[in-house]
Amino acid sequence: MTTIAAFFSESRELARNVPAYISILRIISAGSRTLFVACLLVNVLLAQLPAILAYTNQNVIDSLLSQGRAPHSIGPLKAPLFLGGVYLGFLVTQYVGQLVLVHLSEMLTETGSKQIHTEIIKSAIRLEGLYYFENPAFHNRRSLLERDVLSIPMNILRFAIDISSISVTILGMVLLLFMLHPLIPLLIVLSGIPDVLAQKKAHRLIYEGIKETAPEERRKEYFRSVLIDEEHAKEVRLYNLAGFFINKYNDAFENVLDIVMPIRRRQIKNSILSRLLLSLATILPYLWTIGKAVRGEITPGHLVVFMTAIVVIQQQMARTAQTLAGHQDVIYVMRELAAWLRMKPDLTPAPVAVQVRRKPELSPQVRVSNLWFKYPGSERDVLKGLDLEIPKGKSLAIVGKNGSGKTTLVKLLCRLYDPAQGTIYYDGADIRLMNLDDLRNSIAIIFQDFIRYQFTIKENIALRNGQALNGVSEAAVMAGAAEFIEPLPQAYDTLLGNQFSGGRELSGGQWQRVALARAFYRNAGLLILDEPTASLDIATEARIYAQFKKMTEGKTSLLISHRLSTVRIADHIAVIDDGKVIELGDHESLMGLGGIYNEMFVMQAERFRQSSSASALI
Amino acid sequence: MPRQLLNKLKVVVRVWRFLYKYQKYGLLWGVALVAIGLYPAIAAWLSKKIIDSIFQPPPEHLVSWLPDAFFFGITYGVLTLIHGIISTSSSIELVTLKDKNTRITDQLLMERAASTIDVAAYALAQTRDQIRLASMGGRALPSCFTGSVELLQNFVGTISLSIILIYYHPLVAAIVLIPAIPLLFSQIKIRANTFAALAYKSPLYRQMHYLLELMLGNATAKEIRVYRTGSFFLDKYTKAADEVIKTSRDLRWKATTSGIALGSLAAAGIGGAYIYIIYLATTNTIGIGDVVMYGTSVFYAGGSIRYLVQNASILSAQVLSVEKFFSYLDQQPAEAATSKESSDATGTEEWAIDNVSYSYPERKEKALENVSFQIRSKEKIAIVGLNGAGKTTLMKLMLRLLDPDAGAIRFRGVNLKAWNARALRKTFGVVFQDFSKFKLTLYENIAVALNGGSASNHRDAVFSAARVAGVDEIANRIPQGYETQLGKEFLNGTDLSGGQWQRIALARGFVRNADVIFLDEPTASLDAKTEKALIDQLMVLAQDKTAIMISHRLFVTPMVDRILVLEHGRLVEEGTHQQLMKFDGVYAEMFKTQVGMYWPSPQ
Fold this sequence. Notes:
The complex is a heterodimer of chains A (618) and B (603). Chain A is built from 20 helices and ten strands. By secondary structure, chain A is of the alpha/beta class. A six-stranded mixed β-sheet of chain A has the order 6-7-8-3-9-10, sandwiched between helices. Chain A has a four-stranded antiparallel β-sheet with strand order 2-1-4-5, covered by helices on one side. Chain A is elongated and about 115 Å long. Chain A starts with a helix and ends with a helix. Chain B is an alpha/beta fold. Chain B has helices spanning 2-22, 24-35, 39-55, 68-114, 119-123, 125-168, 170-177, 180-216, 221-227, 230-282, 288-330, 391-398, 421-426, 442-447, 456-469, 471-477, 498-510, 528-541, 577-583, 586-598, and strands at residues 349-358, 368-376, 380-384, 406-411, 414-415, 428-431, 485-486, 493-494, 516-520, 546-550, 562-567, 570-575. In chain B, the strands form three sheets. Chain B has a six-stranded mixed β-sheet with strand order 6-9-10-3-11-12, sandwiched between helices. The model of chain B has no long low-confidence stretch (mean pLDDT 83). The interface between A and B is large, with 183 and 181 residues.
């Protein structure tokens, strides 16, 4: 009874997987429909060959025997040597067919891989906000897909090919056995089902197990990468951290095994039991067939073919079970892939009809009104009713303690999140109603942790292909980067970074200037600089200080910096503390206020005043 | 060719020895699987017996109450059962074997990778490629094992079948086996070419992997969205993928065409053998049972040889991969033969940098050129200069993360190269400019400097260093305090700001309470108030330490004992703040520029 119930539940399970499976097969075949169809056709044709070969064999044997009795009463078509030739022909076809199948499926795997990766990437790029990136489940799924993404198409294809070839082969054999007795194929197939079910159930348990172990797997891979990648090389050596991370790796591994091993043990036990059942169900008809031959009720040819068919069906049933068990990972990954591809956008774009458009190069008036925000999954409000305004074409500097909400404000200005309460206006328009492309293109930003692309300098600045050099070199000059770029042997075509051979690593300050050039190249109306001079040396900082007015001329700009020497030349300065603006004005007026700004400035600058006067005494 | 074959065999033997060392039970399964390779031959022979006993029954039964046919039939059934159980169980067991094996190979790889001393060589692209190939090789090891087992199984099957065929009629054996030999060799050659192509594709794969990381990663997400660069990178990815496909396509075409030619020959050979058997039957040289047995054997041998060829060539590729893993492990990292654990030098000179020059691998220009200076014990030194002057390089040389090309560095009278690396580094505390933000807990991110900080006396050190650096403020504001997981990728992870991370890096530098402390831009992203508090604290804490500080922020320099000024890799000025201001050179200009930005003179 439980077997019948299991049969239906597992079938439902299988049915649920089918849509995901089909959609992924569709992606794999997208680039090359003919290839895909050819692959399937060859596969199906090949799968019929075993039955055909067995049938030919039967005829050979029977004709050999009958030839002894009446050599000329059977036409040449039945002559055993001729049949032998036919057999040879099919054998060669089978061999060639298999090679062709391998060739086609490998081609399809590679093009299919590219298709799948492209879809995975597109699904991620479609997400306009950062909400998903906050979620560990997203990262679980992402690292699983990244790890298995090369093998997915290969395994999915092989799965499809295996299952279809098994089905056709079994069908062929069943038809042959039907001649013996209709019950026999039924018996064998039915007895194979508990084995298949047992394997399927085991696969599902493993699937659950994999889901459970995914976080630990990721941690394990992280610890491994710390020691192998070169990002952490110096601290690993300095602090001799090999043992530490290896222990962590082992702990994570043990956690994974603790979950997985009991499942596997059960799987072995179940598969032994079900294999016993299948074998018994095969031996009985087998012996029964022998009995029939002993009594002379069937010819030797028939005996051979029936014996073959019984054995083949049993093998194929076993192969089904193994295929299902061996491809449990495939099914799991496939579902994760399907879920990934189904990800819905996290930011609601404004409906096209009411969308506000703007030209990116226009400098906006920016107004922030009563902004409240906390990160998803966090209890703490980061912004608590922030109000701010940047007049059109003017510069505003924001200062404040670490964690006071400065970078968060910047992310909201880019609409990477939507606030819980309050609104941001660009030229009086709510940015939530704005066309998102226009909004983002209106902003040129240098984040505190800007990206150092392992590409050429030109690409690092323009972030595009094949752009004319003019715009790039102008931006580089403005950023103070041209002076170290131009002397290089390949100038703007120099490959940066040490990830790829031939790449040149830049110093921190040089990278910052490249990032500045990137921002200038964009020609956007709003310029946001988040700690732009943090790793710049004095000479470069001085130059930017001198050029600040020129750099920000005509643009609305927002500057976040701890270097109050840079802050002081902004048109307006806002002091943020605990998610709110507490002081606002320009440098002179804030110094006159004698409040927090005054205190911070004096703290940073007094050493110079003391020291400069001390040196003046000498 | 034979030498290559011998080398491959050596690798396979090494794989088996590896398993013997680490996973003996795996070997047992391997042996069991090889043993069931005998099954096809026995099954073929049994089928002959069954047919013969039905159509040409012998005079007396083997078992008196059972017709022979049934006896053989039952034997066949039992053997099939055993075969089935072993193959099913082994496939599950082998998955576990694979997992556990991955742990072992990963561990060996990690240990080996972390033991190299020179960080610059480690960062080179060809080292990265080498490690990547070694990593793939380690992960291929269990498949290499199972592949060799399958191959042996095939081999046993083929040999046992051949014995049957040769015993009854040698010519049949020859017709079947001989065509397979050229097929075997051509497949192996093709696989080797494929593997070479894989090495060629490896940089392409790395680029694709990098692009994938850019487009899907957490750290890059915000910039990609604001700059709308998603499609630009997707384009690059597509181009790399297309090139990979093109390379494979050319190779594969060659493989398939030669495979079809030679393979048809092999299949024809098998078919020909079958026809020959039929001919023998028509001339009544052999009986029906023999026909069935030969037919089954020939058919099976053909399939067996094909699998043999396939497995051999797949194994060949896996062996090439695993070889990279073994050869990487075999490389010895350069560690000095003699290694001092401590120095009994007396006297106040702690550091002597003597005419040191260095250029980064594959770079022509010198990062440092003929730099010489000394540092006394407990002295406070500032190293200043513009970007690219060589400050960080100098620090890495002093930490012995790099070795100088010329000149020598002596610490406490002993050349750095003669020091035991571990003992040496224990005397240093370091705050790097680009410090690592580990995805560990807050506590662990500080305690890495104490090798994890699990010992009991470590906790006090960690908490006091945290207090000094202002980290306890941070701990109070995050959900699980010091046990909070940092980094959003893992469950319950919290992100910290740049400034918060900087304070953790500072705590990391001080937790060891080491004699010598290196600080590379320790306050670059701190706000004014925190910065001042920290600098004051630093001065107090570093009182009885030797402190070497790299900084753009010249305002600490008046407080240090001596300033070293680097320009384009050379030491150009040296002295106290007063001396250098009087000298009115590079340093004085830098200082006056800073003053001018804070206190611009009235126009």
